[in-house]
Amino acid sequence: MDLVGHMLHVAIRSGTPLLLAALGEIFAERSGVMNLGIEGMMLVGAITGFAVALATGQPWLGLLAACAAGLLMSLIHAFLSISLYANQVVSGLSLSMLGLGLSSLMGYAYVGVALPSRILPSPVPGLADLPVVGPALFCQDPVVYLALALAIASWFVLYKTKWGIMIRATGDDPSAADAMGINVYLVRYICVAFGGALAGLAGAYLSLVLTPAWVECMTAGRGWIAFALVIFALWDPLKAILGAYLFGATEALQFYIQASLGVDATLLGMMPYVATILAMLVAASEVLRKRLGAPAALGKPYIREERVI
Amino acid sequence: MGARGEAPRSREPLVRMIGITKRFPGVIANDKVDFELMPGEVHALLGENGAGKTTLMNILYGLYRPDEGQIFIDGREVEIRSPRDAMRLGIGMVHQHFKLVSTLTVAENIALSLEGTGLILPARRVRARILEVAQHYGLEVDPDARIWQLSVGERQRVEILKLLIRNAKVLILDEPTTVLAPGEREELFKVLRKLAYEGRGIVFITHKLEEVFRVADRVTVLRKGRVVASGLPVRSTTPSELAKLMIGRELKPRLVKKPARLGEPVLEVEDLSVLDDKGLLAVRGVSFNVRRGEILGIAGVAGNGQRELVEAIIGLRKPRSGRIRIDGHDVTGKAPADVLKLGVAYIPEDRARYGIVPDLSVAENLILKLYKVPPFKRGFFLDEEYILSWSRKVVSDFGIVTPNVRAPAGSLSGGNIQRLILARELSTRPKLIVASHPTFGLDVAATEQIRSLLIEQRERGAGVLLVSEDLSEIMELSDRIAVMHEGQIVGLLSPSEADVEKIGLMMSGKLKEVDG
Lengths: 309, 516
Description:
The complex is a heterodimer. By secondary structure, chain A is an all-alpha fold. Helix content of chain A is 72%, strand content 0%.
C-alpha cells in the first residue's frame, strides 16, 4: 500500500463515525431541533454495541442494538424539547452528560475485554486494485460504504423528495408547514430519532471496528466535532462527507504530528472543543446563522398558538 | 344579481352560511351571521378591524369551529373540521400573512400542499402544471425561484396559484391589497374578475371602501360581529352609505393641515448604506433630511429597505457606510439609548413585539421612557402613586381602552397598543418622530386619531419621518414624499405634484426622478 493511499484510508475510516453522527444531526437540525447530546448518544451506542456483540458474538447485531440505544436516548431530548418546549441547548447538554455517566456505569465490567469476532474490511472486487483510490476507498469495511451511501441518499431525500421538503419546511417555518397540513411535531420526532440512531451507530463503530474495545469516554469529543461539522457543512450531507474525512485526516495525522513536530498531545486533544466553540459562535449568532442559511426555526420550539380574532 | 353579469350563473349558491355564531372569551366575534356566495361573483366582505370578517371566513375554511349555525356548500349541509376538509370541498383561502416557507422554491411550496404529487421529485412534477395555470391566468411566476427572492406581490400570486392548482371553486382573500403597490393591485383585480367569470366565487375581505367599488359585485357589511347589510349589489349603493354602515357614523372630513413652518433640519442622512439580515445591501447610498415642522413620507412596497433604514436611524442596526445626524449630533452607529436621548420618538413597525413589553402593565409601559426622572421616581424608588394617577390621565387623554392601568399591555387590542405607544413616545415632547407603518391594520377610528396626532406634532415643531405602504396616508400627511425602491430613493416629490399612479410606477421601479 502506498503512503498516500494508506493515509487516505485511515482518514476515511476515522471520518466515518463523524460522518454518521453528523448526518443524523443534519436531519434533526433541518427539522428545527438542535441536539447537543450527540456525544452522550454515541457513548451509550458504543457500550451497548460492544456488550451485545460480546454476548451474541455477532458484531452486526451489536451495531443494530447501538442504533436502538441511540434512538432511545434521543427520544428523551425529543420529548423535552418538542413536546415540553424545553430549551434545546440545555436539554441536549444534559443528554450528553447523562450518556457519559450511563455509559461508564454500563461499561464498568467491559473495560479491557477483547472482542472475539470483528467486522472485517471487504474490498470491492476490481476497484480495490486501483492505485491510491483503491486502498483509500475500496478496501474499507462495510460500515464505511454504508455511511457514504447514506450520505448520498440523505442528500437525495432532503432535496429531491416530498419528505425532504416537509423536513425543511418544518425547520424553516413550522407555522407555514402546519398550515400546509404537515404534522410538525411528528416530523421533528422522526428526525431527532433518526439522528439518535445514527449517533448510536457512530459510537458502536468506534467500539466494534475502529478501536475495537470499550474504553471509558472513548468518543473523546467526536460527538462535539460531529456537531461542529454540521455547521461547517452548512447542513448539506454531501459537504458533510468532505468535512468528516477532513476531520478524520487530522485525527489520523495526530500521531505523525506528535512524533515529527513534537506538538503536545493534550493540545491536539483540545481540537474537538475548539471546533465546537467555533461552531457554537455561529450557532449563537442569529445574523451569522441567517447568512449561512441555517434552518430559520433552528432551536426554537414550535408552539401552536391559540388563534385569536 | 351581479353588477357585471358577463358570466353564466346558476341560481344555487356556492356557499350558504346561516346563523353563524362564534364566541371567544369575552367577545362575540360572529353573532348569528348569514352569508351567501353565488358562483361567478366577487363578494366583498366589508368591515372594520375586529368586525368579525376574518373569523367568519376562518370558520368557512375550517380553522375555527362555529358555536352555532349551519354551512351549506352547493346546497348540501357540511361540517368543516379542518382546512383539509375545506380544501376537499373546493374552498381555499389566502391569509393576510402568507403561509409559504421562504427558503423553499415556489414549486416545492405548491407541491407540499398538494395531495398525490408523488414522493420523488414532487417539485419537478408540479412544475408543468404551475406554468400552465400561471399562464392561463396571467399569474406569471418562476417556479424555481425561492420564496424569499420574490416580491410580496409575487408571493401572493403563488398563494393564489396554489388554490387554483387545487382547483378551488371558492377563493377567500383576506385583505389582499394591503401588501401591494397600486399597479399590482390592478393586476390582482383583473385576475379576480377572470376567476369570477369562470364561475368561481370570490370572497374579498377588506376595510377599504374604494376597493369594494373597483372589484366587487355584491357586498356584505359586518359591524361588531353582526351583519348590517347582506349581499347588497354594489351598483345600487354609494361609498358614504357603506361607510356609514361600516363604522356606524359619518366619516370625518379629511384632515386639515396648516402650511408647513419649516425649521432647522433635525434628521440628516448622508449617503447611507445598510445591510439586511442576510448580509445583502438593503439601503444603497440614501441621502435626505427631515426638518422641524415637516412630515417626510417614505413610500415603497415593503422589503425595499425601509425597515433597515429606520433601524439604522434608531441605532438598532449598524450602517455599513454613510452618516446620520440628529439635531446636529453624529449618531452613526450609536446605540438606541443614545439616539433616543436626543429627543427621538420611535413608533416601530411590529408594535406588539418592539413597541411594548406585553407582560408589563399599561402604566409600566407608559413610563418606560420616563421612569428615570422625577416626579416618576423619588430618590431610589418609583413613585407608584404618581405613576398610577398620571397613567390614568394619559389613558383617558388618548382614549386607550383598557380595563385599568394595571392590566398587562399585551392584552390590549392593536389600536389600543398603538395609542399606548404614541402616548408614551409623545410624552417626552420629541424633536424627531420616526413612525413605521403607524396605522397598519388599525380600524378607522384609531387611524384617524393617530394621523391627527402626527399632524399635531408637526405643528408643534417636531420633524416626522413617516414610513408607510398606505399611499393615501402618505399623500394625506406628508409635506414631501420620498419613494424607495430596491434600497434607493427613486423620487422625491411634493404632494401637489404626486399622484397615486406616478408614485406607483416609482414604487415598482418603472420611473425614476430625483431632483432633491
